[in-house]
């Protein structure tokens, strides 16, 4: 009798590889930038080509607004949304009757919003459960390109951590039972641009960074109880960069990117290990780790990229220990993709791509206008030797991971995409303004 090495349950399900889900971070997409926080999945093999009528495993409408990336764990998909209930507080003037209070003329809503956590079945897209974390009127508005559910959740495979910014932090088990919640206070974002930094989970600790026009801070909580372990004030203005946590040089470092400085905090004590200035304003891209260096970049009112050593202490601004720097063509909103020594990023929010050698900072190709994409807010992702770049107009360009710009396919869906993609197994998840798509490659 022939012996099969795959689980018998997967064999029964028509040998469909898409149904053989995993319980390890490497097989899932548990964090908004993937298993290693680089944008790469080492195990995924998503489709190269798709359209509205090709390789769409399922497509479901999502009520409300949200640009948070869906999170994948085993057979479940999690995402956040904020739903305007229309229930009005008449003590607050209608937005059109409020005086102009900021540069973009963004007004405070006067209707209650339901801040909702959704869990979908990964195979069918069917809603398994939804939980309204809280219903409240936002204390300030958000830019039209942002919303009240832009921070991506994260999971350790046992609990789901959902951060709605000023609307609170909530912990559920994967069956939707609430374990704890915390109100961490209200942020005052300059020009009412909205919040967006995602939480990061590491070794039972949850990291929350809040850089805004009020008192900025970094806070680390016990992931089991939600209790604060330590909190530090930060001298920073608006920034939206999700931190990166890494064990290096004998300490677990929490690396935060912002306009004043890139800083490394000791996860256990909260003490600053090192700091380095040099980025521009409104820092949004997430830091990425390459060996002994962290690469940070920004692209608002100027361009900046730096490869900063993880081995130093103190203020290393302008130091010769910085491996390389660049001052052209870096992104404003999207984070870079680090894929086996090649660092891909776009200019500002434009469809102009650059690839550099992550070890040297030297240009591999670009800056070069790519494909048929319009503006880009979503961060690129990579798997199976391919790079996926999604534009706001629904077009995704697939290129080869190589030292030359080699286009493999251009795909289009009928939605607007600001959320970053997620990859797991043979599936690619794309969250649009109206729908969540699960795209699946054919099984071999």
- How can the largest sheet be summarized? 5 strands, mixed
Query: What class would the helix/strand composition place it in?
Result: mainly beta
What would the principal axes of the Cα set say about the shape? globular
β-sheet strand percentage: 35-45%
Strands ordered across the widest β-sheet:
14-15-16-17-21
Number of strands: 33
Helix content: under 10%
Uncertain ranges: 1-18
Distance between the termini: 23 Å
With helices defined by DSSP (H or I, 4 residues minimum), what is the helix count? 1
Overall radius of gyration: 21 Å
Mean pLDDT: 94
Pfam families: PQQ_2
Protein name: Outer membrane biogenesis protein BamB
Domain Pyrrolo-quinoline quinone repeat: 116-364
InterPro entries: PQQ_rpt_dom (IPR002372), Quinoprotein_ADH-like_sf (IPR011047), WD40/YVTN_repeat-like_dom_sf (IPR015943)
Describe this structure in words.
InterPro entries: PQQ_rpt_dom, Quinoprotein_ADH-like_sf, WD40/YVTN_repeat-like_dom_sf. Residues 116-364 form the Pyrrolo-quinoline quinone repeat domain. It holds the Pfam family PQQ_2. The protein starts with 7 loop residues before the first helix and ends with a strand. It has a domain at 23-63 and 371-444. The protein is mainly beta and 444 residues long. The strands form 8 sheets. The chain has a 5-stranded mixed β-sheet with strand order 14-15-16-17-21, with no helix packed on it. It has a 4-stranded antiparallel β-sheet with strand order 1-33-32-31, with no helix packed on it. Residues 1-18 have low confidence and may be disordered. The longest helix is centred in the first third of the chain and has 5 residues, at 8-12. 1% of the residues lie in helices and 40% in strands. It contains 1 helix and 33 strands. Strand 32 (427-431) and strand 33 (435-440) form a beta hairpin.
């Amino acid at each position: 009798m022939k012996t099969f090495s795959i689980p018998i349950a997967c064999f029964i399900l028509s040998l469909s590889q898409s149904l053989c889900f995993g319980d390890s971070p490497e097989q899932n997409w548990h964090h908004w930038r993937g298993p290693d926080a680089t944008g790469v999945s080492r195990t995924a093999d998503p489709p190269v080509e798709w359209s509205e009528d090709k390789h769409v495993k399922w497509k479901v409408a999502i009520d409300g607004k949200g640009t948070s990336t869906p999170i994948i764990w085993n057979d479940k998909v999690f995402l956040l949304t904020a739903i305007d209930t229309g229930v009005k507080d008449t003590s607050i003037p209608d937005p059109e009757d409020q005086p102009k209070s900021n540069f973009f003329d963004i007004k405070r809503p006067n209707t209650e919003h339901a801040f909702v956590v959704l869990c979908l079945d990964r195979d069918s897209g069917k809603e398994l459960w939804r939980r309204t974390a809280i219903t409240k009127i936002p204390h300030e508005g958000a830019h039209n390109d942002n919303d009240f559910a832009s921070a991506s959740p994260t999971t350790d495979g046992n609990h789901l951590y959902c951060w709605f910014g000023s609307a609170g932090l909530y912990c559920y088990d994967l069956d939707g039972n609430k374990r704890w919640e915390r109100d961490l206070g209200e942020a005052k974002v300059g020009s009412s641009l909205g919040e967006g930094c995602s939480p990061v989970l590491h070794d039972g600790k949850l990291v929350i960074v809040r850089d805004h026009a009020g008192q900025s801070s970094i806070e680390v909580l016990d992931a089991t109880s939600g209790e604060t372990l330590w909190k530090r004030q930060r001298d920073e203005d608006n920034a939206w960069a999700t931190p990166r946590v890494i064990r290096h040089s004998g300490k677990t470092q929490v690396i935060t990117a912002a306009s004043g400085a890139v800083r490394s905090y000791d996860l256990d004590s909260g003490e600053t290990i090192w700091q380095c200035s040099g980025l521009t304003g409104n820092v949004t891209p997430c830091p990425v780790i390459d060996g002994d260096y962290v690469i940070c970049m920004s692209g608002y009112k100027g361009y900046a990229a730096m490869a900063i050593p993880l081995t130093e202490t103190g203020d290393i601004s302008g130091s010769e220990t910085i491996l390389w720097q660049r001052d052209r063509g870096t992104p404003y909103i999207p984070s870079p993709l680090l894929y086996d020594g090649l660092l891909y990023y776009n200019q500002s929010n434009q469809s102009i791509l650059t690839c550099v050698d992550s070890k040297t900072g030297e240009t591999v190709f670009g800056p070069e206008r790519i494909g048929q994409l319009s503006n880009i807010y979503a961060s690129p992702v990579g798997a199976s030797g391919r790079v996926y770049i999604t534009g706001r107009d629904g077009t995704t360009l697939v290129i080869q991971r190589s030292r030359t710009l080699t286009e493999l396919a251009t795909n289009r869906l009928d939605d607007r995409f600001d959320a970053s993609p997620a990859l797991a197994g043979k599936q690619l998840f794309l969250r649009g303004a109206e729908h969540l798509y699960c795209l699946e490659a054919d099984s071999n």
